[in-house]
Each structure stands twice: as C-alpha cells, then as structure tokens.
Amino acid sequence: MQSDADAALPEAAPPRRSARASVAAALSTSLEWYDFFIYSTAAALVFNTTFFATDSAVVSALNSFATVAVGFIARPIGGIVAGQLGDKYGRKPVLVGAVVLMAVATSLIGFVPATQAVWLAPTILVTLRVCQGLAVGAQWGGAVLVATENAPAHLRGYYGSFAQLGVPIGVVLGNVAFLLATAFASPEAFVTWVWRIPFWISLVMLPIAFAIHRYLEETPEFRAAAAKAAAQPQVRRSPFFEVLRRNPGAILTAAGANTVGIVFFYATITGSVQLVTTSLGVARSTVLTWILIACVVMIPLVPFFGWLSDRIGRKLVFGLGSAAMLVWAVPMWLLIAASGPDRIWPFAVAVLGAVVAMALQTGTQGTLFAELFPPEIRFSGASLGYQISAIVGGFAPFVTVALINGDPANAWRVGVLIVVLAAAALLCLQLISRRRYHSTAAPAAATGTEATAAR
C-alpha cells in the first residue's frame, strides 16, 4: 500500500545538485571525522603521558581512553537535538551548525594547558570532548540526508556513500597530521607542544561551513515534507517522540546492526595502535603509516560498495560486511599480536583485511538507515539508530586495553568480542523492516532498482 508521503514525492534533484550535495557531505564529514579521530590518536600517543600519567601504563591508557568514550556518550544527545531541529527546520542549517561547533571545540583542545592542577586539564578535555560528541551526533544525520535526499532513486546508495567517505578520509588526514608532527619534531617537542598543531588545523572547517550555508540548497524531500506539514491543521508532534512511538523497532535493530562496525573500527584504528606501540615496541610512525595506507585503500571501496548496494541490495552488502568481520576478527587480532619492530607485516595484513570488511558496511549504512524512516522523522530516526550504537562503540579502545591487560597474548579476546557482536548484527539485520518509505526522485524514477535495493 502506498503511503501518503509516497503519493506526494518531490521531483528528483538535478544531477548538478546531487553532485554538489555529495561533495558538501564528503567535505563536511571528512573534516568532522578528522577532528573526532585526532582526539583518539592523541589519547593513544600523548594524553596518557601528559594529562593522565600514573605509575601504571595500563591505568594511564584506561584513563586516557575513558575521555575518548565520553565523546561517544554525547553523540546520541547531539543526534536527538539535531533530529528535532533537522526534521523541523531543515538538514542544511543543522549540518552547518555542527561543523562550526566541531571546529571551535577541536581547536580549543589544542590550547588546553599542561597545568600542575591535576584536575583542570582533564576537566577541560572532557568538556571539549563532549562538544565534539554533540557535533558528530548532529552532523552525521545532516550529511547523510543532504546526500541521499538530493540523489536520484536508483543511485541513492552511491551518492549516500559520499557522506560516509569522511570516515576513511578523516583517518587519513588525522594520521598525516600526526605523521608530519612526529617526523619534524623531537619526541620531547612532540609530547610538549607539537601534538597541538593538528587540533589547530581544524579551524579550516569554518570557511567550509560558510560555503555550505551559502551555496547548498535544502533537500527537495524535506521541502515537500515541510509543505505537507504546514498544510495540516493539527499540532505537529515532536519528531523525537514521534519516531519513538512509530518506529522503535527500526531504531533498535539499526543500532544493533551497526554496533559491531563501530567497535571493529575503533578497536582497529585506536586500540591496535596503543597495543603495538606500547606493548610490542613498534614505532609510532610505522603504525600510523600502515593505518593511513589501509584507509587510503578503503576510500575507493566505500563508494563502490554504495554503488553495489544500488544493484544487489543494501541489506545484502551490509550483511556481507558483518559476516566478514565475524570471520576476520580473531585471525586479525592474532596477527596484530604477532607484530614487532622487525615484523610489521602481520599488522599490515590485519588492518588491510579489516578495511575491506569495514567498507562493506560504511558504504551502505547511511542510506540503509535513512530508508527505514519517513522524511518527517527521518533525521531523528536515522541519527538515533546510528548514535545509540556509538555509545557501545566508543568504549572499544577502553575495552580493548582492559581485555588485553598489557599482554599481547590476550589479543584474541578482542577478536572473540567482535565475533559475538557480528553475530548479533546479522540477527538484527534480519529483523530490520523490508519496507522502504520514500524515494528522493519522482515516482517515474522508481524502477526495478528500487525493489532490488530494498532487499
């Protein structure tokens, strides 16, 4: 049965607008994730010895990574607030506001003083990390919807994947920044002040935010939903409470399906860095270089798998990613544990295999989750599903350190945890509703590819 919203689909966005929206989504998410990720890198390489130094390396690492997790706890709050605003006032203003908040918060982290008051620096760091979490929670939904709702129906997966390109590009930019910082500074200078430079660079996001505000139009699907809401006499309910009332199952299953990907990702790019540099004696530059190479490999895979989801179905591609994580998790962490200063190839194989599994999910998740909800509550629903999973995923570096407990022989435990989460993800994926609510194109464009992508 055709829903009311389906009966009033907006016209398809022109190709130029689709391309412009996807570029804006990729730029904003790349810089946003750069800011979010460099905190995790600094927590692994610097904060444990500057702001959280103790007599125990494990305790210092746990304290440092606990502040990383704080940002993930804040992400659902950012998603809730942004969902309310984005479903009422538009995708674009929320995206611009999130970019500005992230730029300011991240640059201020670079000014946190190395003070003798042991409580002051951690307090400032936690406050600014919360702001980062709020910004990422707000930004993700805006970027994904700007890309997908401006895309033609038969290429929603492809265009939507550009919002997800920010994940690998953000890691690449962050690692390049830290590699340059370590290459041109002594270890003492790096720990003392050079680590701050990557945080100051984030101010470049401010002109990007202005450009999005100036040149990007609001999505046609939001405009159609807003016009429909304005024509209805009844009082409009809160999008947040409305999506909880109408689609609680979609939110929970989306969160359950996505959790393994976030845990897998952060355990790889942060937890493994801490293990091999602290317990296995591998140089920081070597580890960061291989993480960078792996993410460069991931960049073209993300839009490819987004395009593939337009051909064979979102659920199938996303499910292949979960299955790949399930199969690769334990061998991957055994390889990481087998690495050393003169034996880096196991680590390289581990992370290169990991990014293929991650790209299968990353290229598909934004469009998959957006299609679970009608446009009037889509920002709230997609953001909640994605950001709830981030709460669990944010503790991945912390849990990784706790499971390994300073002994590389325990690395297999991390793999087992990922196997359990991957099995849960596959179950949740089977429970996700098959119904796709909306097309961003006119009805004539909804061809057989629509039905294929719904599988």
From TrEMBL:
Query: Where is it located?
Result: Cell membrane
Highest rank taxon of the organism: Bacteria
Q: Which InterPro entries match?
A: MFS, MFS_dom, MFS_trans_sf
Looking up Gene3D superfamilies in the UniProt record yields:
MFS general substrate transporter like domains (1.20.1250.20)
GO CC annotations on file:
plasma membrane
Please tell me where this protein is predominantly located. membrane
Specify the protein name: Shikimate transporter
